């Protein structure tokens, strides 16, 4: 879809739809009063009949006929004045885009000066609206072959309307920035939504190569034999139950000083998690195609960062495997030797994410990262603790955690910290090996992180458990059902804020 900026007056716009926004209970702004007058009190009557009050996610569609050049006027609620900010704006823009797309209205004008969000810069306003519209109109419909004409059409073009010519440039920059980030988010969503039969570990590697091809990133892929030679025993252990061979995918982006230490992003890439011999129940097992959500986010972030030319060095590492039960699978009780040399007693083959991440974290040491951040759909316990409204964050550096939490607040991808006290490590001590891969029922998200911490000792490190946020079950204003691409916007924001200035 095309997103453009122009200067003009809202009520003079000739467009299939003029989109206006309103705060809850604040419907007597100069613009809305004028609209009401022109429409002979239509807004007053709608408010009187309780059809619209400006609540969050509320919409009101008006047909002005010959009274306005616009064919339709769509009012969208921003909710209460208190707390109205970028996230509400993304949601309102997403709500409007969904509403119009479902009614096959594919072109509209979104009025910005009427937005009652004074403290946000023009760039950020344009950025927020662009994200809201673009991410709301995302669809994963490539496998629908029948009745494609019934699918909601792609949005064609939307205009952001401003009143000052001076803002046009800033807005255009905000749009361009947001579109680059959205490409990363949508790549991540596509990869998560793809079925397990299509996305083998090697398929993910090919996707990484394609990103590298487009953007000039360096891509290295370690195959079975190299993984054996290097000794990634924990990762290989997980992979051995599947006929589809594992891949360790490494993408390198160099936008910073040649001597600047990189940020390492590490993403769990289990293309399907059946649990292995510790088999999962059948119900909703299909959703475990999303168990590469962390890896998808790393690939999406690498793409966005290079499109944006962020002045930072990055390395993205995705251990890609499939966790299946079979005659060649590891069994409960097996002991694996990880790349770090530490031995791990595998008491539950379904706790596979931490095994592959252990080796990926150890592998990351070669890049001497300044910061390491891993993302993983790691524990069901995280969904129990936080539900679907926040990603859990744990780590060994409060400063890094605070920066990420703040990036989460800015982007609407919220994080909530869980403690990682030394006491929890007792739960993952093995009687006969260095570690065991499960810590019992209490604090499952924390003991999984405590396990990872053993492999991140040399880093400034944070772990994001996205088990509850990588997949959307119901659909939210700018997050349709399915893969969410969570973490891409968060990480890009973090990287933009945390960059040491280029000298
Ligand atoms: N991929 C799952 C975690 C998961 C569960 C992600 C639900 C998203 C939604 C992970 O590999 C797993 O199976 N974890 C086990 C660990 C347990 C055996 C210690 C779990 O959470 O049950
Ligand atoms: Mn599992
Ligand atoms: Zn898993």
Protein model, in words:
The chain is an alpha/beta fold and 503 residues long. The protein has 2 domains: 2-154, Leucine Aminopeptidase, subunit E, domain 1 (3-Layer(aba) Sandwich), CATH 3.40.220.10; 182-498, Aminopeptidase (3-Layer(aba) Sandwich). Helices cover 34% and strands 20% of the residues. The protein has 14 helices and 20 strands. The chain has helices at 30-38, 42-48, 86-102, 122-136, 168-193, 201-215, 224-230, 233-239, 293-307, 353-364, 380-386, 398-411, 444-453, 488-498, and strands spanning 2-7, 18-23, 59-62, 73-79, 107-111, 157-162, 218-222, 247-254, 263-267, 269-273, 313-323, 334-337, 343-346, 371-376, 391-395, 415-417, 435-436, 461-465, 471-472, 482-483. Strands 7, 8, 9, 10, 11, 14, 15, 16 and 18 form a 9-stranded mixed sheet that branches. Strands 1-6-5-2-4-3 form a 6-stranded mixed sheet, with helices on both faces. A 3-stranded mixed sheet has the order 12-13-17. α9 (293-307) links the parallel β10 (269-273) and β11. α4 (122-136) packs parallel to α5 and α8 packs antiparallel against α10. The longest helix has 26 residues, at 168-193. The site of manganese (II) ion (MN) has 4 residues, from loops.
List the helices and strands and how they pair.
Layout: E1 2-7, E2 18-23, H1 30-38, H2 42-48, E3 59-62, E4 73-79, H3 86-102, E5 107-111, H4 122-136, E6 157-162, H5 168-193, H6 201-215, E7 218-222, H7 224-230, H8 233-239, E8 247-254, E9 263-267, E10 269-273, H9 293-307, E11 313-323, E12 334-337, E13 343-346, H10 353-364, E14 371-376, H11 380-386, E15 391-395, H12 398-411, E16 415-417, E17 435-436, H13 444-453, E18 461-465, E19 471-472, E20 482-483, H14 488-498
Parallel strand pairs: 1-6, 2-4, 2-5, 5-6, 9-11, 9-14, 10-11, 13-17, 14-18, 15-16
Antiparallel strand pairs: 3-4, 7-8, 8-11, 12-13, 15-18, 19-20
This protein binds ligand BES, manganese (II) ion and zinc ion.
């Amino acid at each position: 879809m095309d997103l453009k900026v122009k200067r003009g007056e809202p009520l003079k716009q000739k467009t299939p739809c003029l989109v206006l926004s309103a705060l809850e209970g604040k419907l007597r702004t100069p613009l809305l009063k004028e609209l009401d007058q022109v429409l002979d009190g239509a807004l007053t009557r709608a408010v009187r009949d309780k059809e619209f009050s400006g609540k969050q996610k509320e919409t009101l569609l008006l047909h002005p006929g010959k009274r306005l050049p616009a064919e339709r006027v769509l009012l969208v609620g921003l909710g209460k004045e208190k707390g109205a900010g970028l996230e509400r704006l993304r949601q309102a823009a997403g709500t409007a885009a969904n509403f119009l797309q479902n009614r096959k209205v594919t072109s509209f004008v979104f009025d910005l000066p009427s937005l009652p969000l004074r403290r946000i810069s023009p760039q950020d306003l344009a950025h927020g609206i662009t994200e809201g519209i673009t991410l709301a109109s995302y669809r994963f419909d490539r496998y629908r072959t029948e009745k494609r004409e019934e699918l909601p059409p792609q949005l064609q073009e939307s205009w952001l309307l401003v009143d000052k010519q001076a803002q046009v440039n800033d807005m255009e920059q905000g749009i361009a920035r947001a579109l680059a980030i959205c490409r990363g988010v949508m790549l991540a969503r596509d990869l998560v939504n793809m079925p397990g039969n299509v996305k083998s570990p090697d398929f993910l590697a090919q996707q990484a190569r394609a990103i590298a091809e487009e953007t000039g990133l360096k891509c290295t892929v370690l195959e079975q034999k190299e993984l054996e030679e290097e000794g990634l025993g924990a990762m290989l252990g997980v992979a051995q139950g599947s006929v589809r061979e594992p891949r360790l995918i490494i993408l390198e982006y160099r936008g910073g000083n040649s001597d600047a230490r990189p940020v390492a992003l590490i993403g769990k890439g289990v293309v399907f998690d059946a649990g292995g011999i510790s088999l999962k129940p059948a119900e909703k097992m299909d959703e475990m195609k999303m168990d590469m959500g962390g890896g998808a986010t790393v690939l999406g972030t690498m793409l966005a960062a290079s499109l944006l030319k962020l002045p930072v060095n990055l390395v993205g590492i995705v251990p890609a495997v499939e966790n299946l039960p079979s005659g060649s699978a590891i069994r409960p009780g097996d002991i694996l030797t990880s790349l770090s040399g530490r031995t791990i007693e595998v008491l539950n083959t379904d706790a596979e994410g931490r095994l592959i991440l252990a080796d990926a974290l150890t592998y990351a040491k070669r890049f001497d990262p300044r910061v390491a951040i891993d993302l993983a759909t790691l524990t069901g316990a995280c969904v129990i603790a936080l539900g679907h409204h926040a990603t859990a964050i744990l780590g060994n550096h409060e400063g890094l955690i605070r920066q990420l939490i703040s990036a989460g607040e800015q982007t609407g991808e919220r994080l909530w910290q869980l403690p990682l006290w030394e006491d929890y490590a007792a739960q993952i001590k093995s009687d006969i090996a260095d570690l065991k891969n499960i810590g019992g029922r209490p604090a499952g998200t924390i003991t999984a992180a405590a396990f990872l911490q053993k492999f991140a000792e040399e880093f400034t490190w944070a772990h994001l458990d996205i088990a509850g946020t990588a997949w959307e079950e119901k659909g939210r204003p700018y997050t349709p059902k399915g893969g969410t691409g969570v973490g891409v916007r968060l990480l890009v924001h973090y990287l933009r804020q945390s960059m040491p200035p280029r000298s």
